[in-house]
Each structure stands twice: as structure tokens, then as C-alpha cells.
Records
---
Amino acid sequence: MSKKLKIAIQKSGRLQEQSIKMLKECGLSFANGSSRLKAEVDNFPAEILFLRDDDIPQYIEDNVADIGIIGENVFIEKEKQGEIILKLGFAKCRLSIAVPKSAEYKDAGTLNGKKIATSYPVIVQQFLNENNVNAEIHEISGSVEIAPGIGLAEAICDIVSTGSTLLTNGLKEVETIMKSEAILVANNNLDAESKAILDRLVFRINSVNAAKSNKYLVLNAPNNAIEAITEVLPGMKSPTVTPLKEEGWSSLHSVVNENDFWGKIDELKALGAQGILVIPIEKMIL
Ligand code: PRT
Ligand code: ZN
């Protein structure tokens, strides 16, 4: 039997839906019922393991899984063997220190002698060491934000996304100690066959992500503007130019990055482009 790459993803929670979506966009076909632990992939040499996110780093270290999708915060906190292969761009958040709204806070030194409640003792300790702060870490596994209110700690360190949880609990964010997003992690010692399958998967993820950040652009332009428009549109190579039936006019096809998209459109219009169409790209093979 040929080798299968064992891919661990979160069984349920914030990472689950987008992890599944990304693998499916990469063409992997598998069943994803919430009650299952494992699913075979029909059309790619892989199987999916559905696990608690906190357990994934250990499973990767123990070779139960070869790769996994988890929050960078969890990967750093668990201090397990493994290599970050890719940042995946979803589940973005930050790990921050927060204190009661009324508390005075100047800098990290303010935390000296204080008690900090968190589910991330390793990351918080690193932060304290870097800042030469001596504080007591109180590890709790959930509802960290209520700790100051019930007298358990003077500060907390927790994941923040919109900030509304802190706000409703009368807390203010005073330090961001790490930024996080979903990452693809792999065991450091994959054999050659598994590594080759991983490379195929990474190639597909990159193609899917490149497609998401680029748009296919079609426009009409007078022939005397083609030169100037080509300067604005680098495209994957150079734009495709085809003549229109109307004398002196051409159609140009190109790819533009979403980051500078509106800026490009303004420039193109100013150069005489008309009938501009913007079309999503499904996959972009780099
Ligand atoms: O059951 P399992 O152990 O698998 O899941 P879990 O409950 O441990 O994790 P889950 O699903 O809540 O989060 C998984 C990962 O998503 C985290 O490790 C982060 O990398 C990432 N992530 C992104 C977040 C958030 N955004 C987030 N907002 N994880 C948690 N939160 C929580 C946070 O703990 C706080 O309670 O949301 C609240 C803050 O949100 P705002 O929007 O009010 O600031
Ligand atoms: Zn968890």
C-alpha cells in the first residue's frame, strides 16, 4: 500500500470550517461528519484526523499525524517539535495583556509583583523574561477574562480578535505580545515519500491563495494607449492583446493583485481603458 499523509485538523471550533474549506479548495475530497475521528481522502494520498487543536502539536511530534493546521499561538505554547511550513491567513488574532479599565498601566514593568491569569503560561513567561519582569502566572484553561473581576488576578493574557470580550468584562488591552493566525505545521522528520506528498499539497495551497489575492482583468483600449496601459499591468508575463473588430481598438487581458487593485483601475481609466471587467480566478498555477 502506498503512503498516505496524515493531516490533523481541529475537530470543532474556530479553525475547523476554514481548514476543511481550504483542503477542499485544494481538491481533496473527504467526508467531514462532526462525529468522525478520521476520514479517508478519495483522490489524494492523505487521510484527515479530527482532533482538539491543543493536542495536535503532540500528535505531530509523536508521528500520529504528519502535518496539522493550528493557531500559531498553540504551536508556540506547546513547545513541540515541528516546522512551520506556511501561514494560512485565517483565524487571525493576537495574544494580549489586559488589565481592569481603571487600573494604571505604564509599561511591562507595571506587571512586577502582579498575578496574571492565562491559558498561555509559556508565551507569557517568555514575554516577562524579555522584559525583566517578575510576575506570578496563574494558569487557567478557560474564561480567563473573568479572573480580575473575581479577584483571581490583577491582569490577564488572552486571545483578542475584535476586543469586545475585553470590553464587556471591563478590561483594557495594554500589550500585544504575539500575533497569530492559522499555520500549517509539519513533523521535522518526514520521510521522503510523505515530504513529496506535502510538497504537492503546499503547491496547491499556494495556488489557491494566489488566486484569492489576484483578479483577472479584461478591458478595451485604443491601440495608442496599449503601451502605457501595459506599463500599469505587469500581469503574469505581459498582458494578452487581441484586436477588436472596431478599427484602432484592442482588448487586453491581465492579472492584478488585489492590494493595489483600485489604484490600478483609476490609472487604467485615466489612460483611456473602457469596458473594464474584473473576474475572480479560481486557481492560479505559479
Ligand atoms: O476544542 P478545541 O480545544 O479544539 O478548541 P479551543 O476552544 O481551544 O479553540 P478555538 O476554536 O476557540 O480557537 C482556535 C484558535 O482560533 C485559537 O487557538 C486561535 O489561534 C484562533 N482564534 C482566532 C481565536 C480567536 N480568534 C478568538 N477570538 N481563539 C479564541 N478567541 C476567543 C478568545 O479566547 C476570547 O475569549 O474569542 C474571545 C475574544 O474575541 P473578541 O472578538 O471578543 O476579541
Ligand atoms: Zn483548544
---
Amino acid sequence: MSDDHKHDHDHGHGSELSEMQLRVRALETILTEKGYVDPAALDSIIETYETKVGPHIGAQVVARAWVDPGFRKALLADASKAIAQIGLQQKVGDHLIAVENTPTTHNMIVCTLCSCYPWDLLGLPPVWYKSAPYRSRTVKEPRKVLADFGVTLPDETKVRVWDSTAETRFIVLPMRPAGTQDWPEDKLASLVTRDSMIGTGFPKAANEVSA
Ligand code: FE
């Protein structure tokens, strides 16, 4: 009786883990027991994405594009190739496309089907990126989604939404903030937020980072 009662509650009641986390754990256990995966290797992959790969890599790419017109051109022509050539990342997906924000066009990235994301450049995707509302509303009402993120654009700015796939990922090249003409690349990189590279935010303003 008490077991039945428990089961009537939402999954995860009495556990810190969500249903998805429980499923992942179960799958990992089976694969490990059958000898298909080495748990140490899994841990190291996860640790890499948690600690080593993160938005700071994408931020370096953006900062380089801001200071180096040749790199900017190469990045917009073939982002995977341009990034591999400067040695920031060996492999950036099969096909990475950089889309540039301008005063007339603002770009936003979504994966309507699941949660494809440029992991190599931005690390782990934020939870909202994987959420059903973000995935469906971004296509239908991008300006309203932007407003939820506190982003308002001039009426004349066009919003373009890019739908990622397993093969093709996107990164937004945001506009360089005003008042940063003489800034070195690493200081510029400190202005580049993760959300500005997804299109749900802007880079920080020059006065938001310390000298
Ligand atoms: Fe996806």
C-alpha cells in the first residue's frame, strides 16, 4: 500500500535525481556492467565539458574576429576551418556556421528538434536552451522570447532564427560594444557572454568590466 501511494506522486519524489538523470544513470550502469564504456573515460569527458570547455573559448573566437578583419572574414566564410586554423579548437562539430549581428540583423540560435548546440565553443548548454518553450517559441515569436531575456531591439532590426541540427551548429558573432577601440583581445573576450553567442543576450558594455 505504501509503495502504491509513493508511486502516485511525481517521479523524483524522495530522490534528488530527475527522471532523466535516473534514466541516464541506469543506462550508464548497464553499459559499464557490459563493458561497453569505461566510467573513468565518461567522467573525464564530463569533466572536460564542465571545466575546460566553456563559453570562454567562444569568447576568444569572437574577440579575435573583432580585432582581426581577416579572421572575421574567414570565420564568416567557414567557421570550423577558421577556428581550427588559429588552434583554439581542433574539432568544432562537423559544420559550424558563424552568423554576424549588425545594426539591421539580429541572429538567434535554437534547436527546434532537440538541443544541438556548439559544445566545443560554448561548453554545456544552459537548461533553458533545451526547454520545450524556448525551442518552440523562438521560431514563432522570437521578439517575445528576446524580451523574456531582457533583450529589446529597434523595430527596424530584423531577427533571424537559425535552427541547429546534429550536423550544423551556429554561433552568433555579436556586435563589438562601443568604447572598446583600443582594447586588447583578452579584455574584449571578457565582454563576450555565453548568451550573446546564442543571440539571447548582448555582450557586456565597456563600463561593466574593470580596467
Ligand atoms: Fe538538437
